[in-house]
Amino acid sequence: MRKPAVVAAATVVFAAAAAAAVLARQRLREAKRWARAGAVLRDLEARCAAPAERLRQVADAMAAEMRSGLASDDPEGGDGSVVLKMLVTYVDSLPSGDEKGLFYALDLGGTNFRVLRVQLGGKEQRIIKQESKGVSIPRHLMSGGANELFDFIAAALAKFVASEGEDYHLPEGVQRQLGFTFSFPVKQTSIASGTLIKWTKGFTIDEMVGMDVVAELNKAIKRQGLDMKVTALVNDTVGTLAAAKYADNDAIAAVILGTGTNAAYIDHAHTIPKWHGPLPKSGDMVINMEWGNFRSSHLPLTEFDHALDAESLNPGEQIYEKLISGMYMGEIVRRFLLKMAQEASLFADGVPEKLEIPYILSTLHMLMMHQDTTPDLQTAGIKLKEVLGIQNTCYKTRKVVVDLCEVVARRGARLAAAGVYGILKKLGRDTVSPDEQRTVIAVDGGVYKYYTFFAQCMESTLRDLLGEEVASSVVIKQAEDGSGTGAALLAASYSQCLQDD
């Protein structure tokens, strides 16, 4: 009777030992998996590192490329030697605050546009009242004819003017002045003229290339029977700078950090070798840097960045933009995650199928996971499930994902700070000023506005690069709706200039 009991007991012992061995092997596998994941993360972190010494080299390279671009008479960089186009905007008079009257703006930046009217009351009243309306462009007009597109836009302007209340006053017989924000590549020839270089953002109206966009809009406005003309043609970054200067006279530069990125700043006209016209009265000139195209051997690029660039619609171009803007940061995180899934089995169920789809992970998803404040990173888990179809993730996995987002965001923010530092170096504002001049940089765009970590990291990095004494006189200000309001303000500013002349 005892023998079966002994056998049963031995079986239980063996089963327990076998289970313990299986558990031990599982734990060892898990330990190795997390060790691999940790090693891959540390390697990526090291290759994305942007220490202060490297950032200073990036800033020096930015300042050097700014000087090269200002000297080059080939703004399109046809031979590839011009990294920064440094486009002369013909904006030499920014709003002062004295502007009075009713002015309009048209902000065309993509598949939608906005029309605005702004009532200005001079130094005392500033912006008395402002209204705007958004309009969607029908898809067929994006590939039709030039007249059809501009007639549609002019009709919306006419309807907007017709809806005006009595509280918007324009003296009888006075022509309406319009600021035109046109966020497509343009070769500007004066403050109120510029030829289209190429369409982007889904527009394919080939006959428009090489045509003066202001002339076409003015003709369409006339066809509507509207007594209005374009006084200023600007891009969104220049509009943001104009709005910033109106709000704070110490504003000297504007930076857009959104889907794309760009910067504009005020330079001394006599320091621009390619400027061949008479020196403006103000002595200044706003330069549109097109800084998204900046590149340098000092940028911390990984094989993922090189692959993203090679597979993009514009390989070899916009390298800086591909490191710091909203269009690309989420995609870089996706590529990093794919490597971790393949090489370190980051996800327990293997490589998620959706993780192999380019651009499925946006920078908005990235910031939502990164800025997750729940104790168990629940938001990150929800996003991984919603976007990538990963059903169950443990806390460790979610933490690695959040850490990866931080690596990419920190690199982007620190490189953006280096770009601003480069502008300050070019202007000689990177040292202590004897007259204690204040320097204001206006920043707009969704990445800066909504990605709190990015904005804070960028600002703290710039402070570190400048040093406490210089940093105390440099202010980064968030710009609000600069591109539209700024265009109206420039229309006012140039209308005033014409009256003065």
TrEMBL record:
Query: Which GO CC annotations does the UniProt entry carry?
Result: cytosol; mitochondrion
Source species of the chain: Panicum hallii var. hallii
Q: Which residues form the signal peptide?
A: none
* Name this polypeptide is given: Phosphotransferase
Matching CDD domains, A to Z? ASKHA_NBD_HK_plant
Record keywords = ATP-binding, Glycolysis, Kinase, Nucleotide-binding, Transferase
Q: In which pathway does it act?
A: Carbohydrate degradation; glycolysis; D-glyceraldehyde 3-phosphate and glycerone phosphate from D-glucose: step 1/4; Carbohydrate metabolism; hexose metabolism
A Pfam family of this chain: Hexokinase_2
Q: Where is the Hexokinase N-terminal domain?
A: 41-246
Q: What is its EC number?
A: 2.7.1.-
| InterPro entries named in the record | ATPase_NBD (IPR043129), Hexokinase (IPR001312), Hexokinase_C (IPR022673), Hexokinase_N (IPR022672)
Classification of source organism: Eukaryota, Viridiplantae, Streptophyta, Embryophyta, Tracheophyta
Tell me, what is an example of a GO biological process annotation in this record?
response to glucose
Q: Which reaction(s) does the protein catalyse, per the Swiss-Prot or TrEMBL entry?
A: D-glucose + ATP = D-glucose 6-phosphate + ADP + H(+); D-fructose + ATP = D-fructose 6-phosphate + ADP + H(+); a D-hexose + ATP = a D-hexose 6-phosphate + ADP + H(+)
Q: Which SUPFAM superfamilies does this one have? A: Actin-like ATPase domain
Q: What GO molecular function terms would the record report? A: ATP binding; D-glucose binding; fructokinase activity; glucokinase activity
Give the family this protein belongs to, as stated in its UniProt record. Belongs to the hexokinase family.
UniProt domain Hexokinase C-terminal: residue ranges: 253-492
Superkingdom of the source?
Answer: Eukaryota
